Amino acid sequence: MRQLIQCIAENDHYEVRHLLKMLRQIQAHYHYIPEAAIDQLSGLLKIHRTQITSVIEFYSFFHLSPRGQYELLISDSITDHMLGKQSLLEYMTIKLNVAVGAVRQDGLVSLDNTSCTGMCDQGPAGLVNGHALTRLDKKGIDQITALINQQKPLEEWPPELFQVDDNIYKSGLLLNQQIDQGAGIRLVLQRGAKETLQEIDKSGLRGRGGAGFKTATKWKFCSEEHQMERYVVCNADEGEPGTFKDRVLLNSYSDQVFEGMTVCAAIIGAQKGFLYLRGEYLHLYDKLENILVQRRQNGLLGNNILNAGLSFDIEICLGAGAYICGEESALIESLEGKAGIPRNRPPYPVTQGYLGKPTVVNNVETFMAAAGITINGCDWFADIGTEKSKGTKILSISGDCPRPGIYEYPFGVTVKDILTDCGATDVLGIQVGGPSGTFISNEEFDRKLAFEDLATGGSFIIFNTSRNILDMVSNFTHFFAHESCGFCTPCRVGTSLLKKQVDKIVEGHGSAGDIVALEELCQLVKNYSHCGLGQTAANPILTTLQRYPDLYHSHLKEISFEPGFDLDGALETARRMANRDDAGAHLAQTESEHE
């Protein structure tokens, strides 16, 4: 162990910012992080062991106690449940002879749930030692069980178990175009950085991650900072359940994404960039690294790019299972080797981001679009869409439809047209933008996809009339409670209370007062949480409660009274007693007698 840890730390130059990378290597080797490894790493990196332990405890893919040689994690997303995930999980416990959340007695296999793995179009899905498993069924589970019991290394498993498809059903402006390597960089060098920024500004490109901040404005702010050291970060941590478009873009269009990052670097004057890749996309890591190597060999990354004096390189950083790291400041904390706890803002990343330096953070689709605009000009993009929403939007569509996958639309398309294209019928409603987004009912399908109407990071989860919407609400509230970073009390405690309150109502133990309390709690969590996770955690409840109040009330327990009981009289007595000094005692007696 001492030799291994020494080698890992030395390869990463004893830099604390590489702590996640080091811990991932240790975890992969031992299937947990041993205490002895923490002690040695603490000495080598010259940091306190509690700093390392806090990072391990923060990320769900790190463990302080042993897991199985084969660690199986099954996605707990609502889309997986809709495809029969729960019965398959029960089947796995029987076949593998291991309980959920436990390690088998021989230490060979462990089984547990995990948050959405980004395979909503091909579930039920899971992970084995971090590698994606798709379209799980009983036949596949039988096969996996045999392979584990034979202790076959993953390299010898049938490749169809790991098959991940793009499932692109509708292409548009971005998906129809494959650009030549270096085309965007050459045009920036010919046209000039300032002029290229103007093209992006005129195009009307806004961030595709959901917030919709104008891209050119963000880049301009960063370029105007006095500090010379600047950074470009691509946020590929799409942990929002129901979202998987960035996975497809990185698999089939990564050259354009890297091109867009390099264009940004040329404009703002950055020499270093990072692709923060969510841990669930481990299967893409080697492929993306090979593309970066190819770009360096072709003179498109590294020192003196295209012999024009531009120097810029990109490093891939793998996450370790934390939804909160999709928030840009939490992502930057994670890049620096820390727990991904969102920072106070201001200052914003454009002025004080990675290592305290000016940093542009955009998502995968935004950088891809920026590369296309650089090559084709602003009108190519601006001539499509609506007045306030230019260009196209790439959607991840899943749930109750025969063709789940990737669809690209000009902004302004109606929900009705989208449902027609994916073949969805008898639709009850759609969760737009993932759990943190908005639920719309079947009376709203004339609404349009646009920042001025239905803004979304790109997720459509479709529910037909056979579904109970409260199952979705329960799943999402459990997700937020699990993924809260724990930094602030309104979110840490509030999401847990929301989960319990929703469970109480769904299980038929709630009263009308519980719905009132639920609404009040939603507002507290929404208005007082530190970051976007807590501020949007109540959205699944609020948006469905607004549209389907009767559904919530139908789950309330019925209250029955003895024949002849005078409820109105009892309530009047309680009100009268409430004005007396000994009201508490009388109310308690009233409650005891008439409950």
Key descriptive features of the protein:
595 residues; disordered C terminus; 5-stranded mixed β-sheet; single chain; 25 helices; Rossmann fold; globular
Short description:
By secondary structure, this protein is α/β, with parallel strands linked by helices. It has six domains: 2-58, no CATH class; 70-162, Glutaredoxin, CATH 3.40.30; 170-382, Rossmann fold; 392-467, Ubiquitin-like (UB roll) (Roll); 470-553, NADH-ubiquinone oxidoreductase 51kDa subunit, iron-sulphur binding domain (de novo design (two linked rop proteins)), CATH 1.20.1440.230; 563-595, no CATH class.
Describe this structure in words.
By secondary structure, the protein is α/β, with parallel strands linked by helices. It has six domains: 2-58, no CATH class; 70-162, Glutaredoxin; 170-382, NADH-ubiquinone oxidoreductase 51kDa subunit (Rossmann fold, 3-Layer(aba) Sandwich), CATH 3.40.50; 392-467, Ubiquitin-like (UB roll) (Roll); 470-553, Up-down Bundle (de novo design (two linked rop proteins)); 563-595, no CATH class. The chain contains 25 helices and 16 strands. The strands form three sheets. Strands 6-13-12-16-14-15 form a six-stranded mixed sheet. 47% of the residues are buried.
Unreliable stretches: 580-595
Q: Termini, distance in Å?
A: 63 Å
Strand count, sense and barrel status of the largest sheet are: 6 strands, mixed
Q: What's the CATH class of the largest domain, please?
A: Alpha Beta
Q: What is the oligomeric state here?
A: single chain
Which architecture name of the largest domain does CATH use?
3-Layer(aba) Sandwich
Radius of gyration: 26 Å
In percent terms, what proportion of residues is strand? Answer: 5-15%
